[in-house]
């Protein structure tokens, strides 16, 4: 039975991705902070779809918890077939984790970087999928301030984190020496979810706008499910998908020098904390 690892899997797109892959017969490895929600997800999926569902509770904004999660999965599974980096959040005010990292950068980028690096080097899943967004367009990364310390705007920090997801996808694809591993990223669509509801009024207004115009979380999960399971794109790698179709990401996202610099910067943080 194929095994899929999904981060941020207790609600929203992550939950619908888990359900969609369970329907296709995948055993699941799900992780989020909320163990109570995960427990209910596990019970419902195992009853409805007759698959195995292993759950873990970790705060993926912390590098050490990403590493502990990986080590636990490695202990419990000899191999996994799919890694879907889906966890994400938007923060109106700048916050710093206990490891000293700006929280948007830590959760939305470093978790993707750390898990992609560890899984590709050790468990070697056939497919790595990074959930990015069309929000990546319109801004560049500040190469002197990857963590938004000089000035902070929550929406801009989120946009840059989604651009970082694409840079990480493309750079990992260039670095992989195992052509049995594919790595791709995607835009899930403008999804109607509770994504921004834990913030102040401007973000709640944005969330209300999305609720009116956005697609369902079930629709938002379709490209993740497609990239995880479709046999026709098994060997496609280093691509950006929208509505299950490869598209061009922003012109800035193809800058190899920035991608290498971000990778090096992220790897130095990883080494320092570990």
Which key features would you list for this structure?
274 residues; alpha/beta; Rossmann fold
Describe the secondary structure blueprint for this structure:
Layout: E1 3-7, H1 12-23, E2 27-32, H2 35-49, E3 53-57, H3 63-76, E4 82-85, H4 103-123, E5 127-131, H5 154-175, E6 182-187, H6 201-213, H7 217-220, H8 222-229, E7 240-242, E8 245-247, H9 256-273
Can you characterise this structure?
With 274 residues, this protein is of the alpha/beta class. It has a single domain, classed as Rossmann fold (3-Layer(aba) Sandwich). It is 46% helix and 14% strand. An 8-stranded mixed sheet has the order 3-2-1-4-5-6-7-8, with helices on both faces. The longest helix has 22 residues. The chain is globular, with a radius of gyration of 17 Å. It starts with a strand and ends with a helix.
Roughly how many Å is the radius of gyration?
Answer: 17 Å
The profile of the biggest β sheet is: 8 strands, mixed
Poorly predicted spans? none
What is the helical fraction, as a range of percent? 40-55%
Distance between the termini: 33 Å
């Amino acid at each position: 039975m194929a095994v899929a690892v999904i981060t941020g899997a207790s609600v929203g797109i992550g939950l619908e991705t888990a359900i969609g892959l369970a329907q296709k017969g995948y055993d699941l490895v799900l992780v989020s902070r909320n163990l109570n929600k995960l427990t209910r997800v596990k019970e419902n999926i195992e009853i409805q779809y007759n698959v195995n569902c292993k759950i873990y509770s970790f705060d993926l904004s912390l590098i050490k918890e990403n590493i502990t999660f990986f080590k636990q999965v490695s202990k419990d599974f000899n191999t996994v077939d799919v890694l879907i980096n889906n966890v994400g959040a938007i923060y109106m005010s700048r916050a710093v984790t206990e490891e000293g990292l700006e929280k948007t950068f830590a959760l939305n980028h470093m978790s993707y970087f750390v898990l992609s690096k560890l899984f590709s080097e050790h468990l070697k899943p056939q497919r790595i999928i990074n959930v990015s967004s069309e929000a990546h367009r319109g801004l560049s990364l500040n190469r002197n301030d990857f963590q938004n310390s000089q000035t902070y705007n929550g929406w801009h920090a989120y946009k840059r984190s989604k651009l970082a997801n694409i840079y990480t996808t493309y750079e990992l694809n260039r670095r992989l020496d195992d052509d049995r591993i594919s790595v791709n990223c995607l835009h899930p669509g403008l999804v109607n979810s509770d994504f921004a509801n834990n913030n102040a009024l401007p973000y709640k207004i944005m969330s209300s706008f999305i609720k009116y115009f956005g697609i369902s979380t079930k629709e938002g999960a379709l490209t993740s499910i497609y990239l995880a399971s479709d046999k026709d794109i098994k060997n496609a790698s280093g691509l950006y998908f929208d509505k299950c179709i490869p598209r061009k990401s922003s012109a800035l996202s193809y800058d190899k020098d920035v991608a290498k610099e971000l990778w090096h910067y992220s790897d130095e943080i990883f080494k320092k904390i570990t």
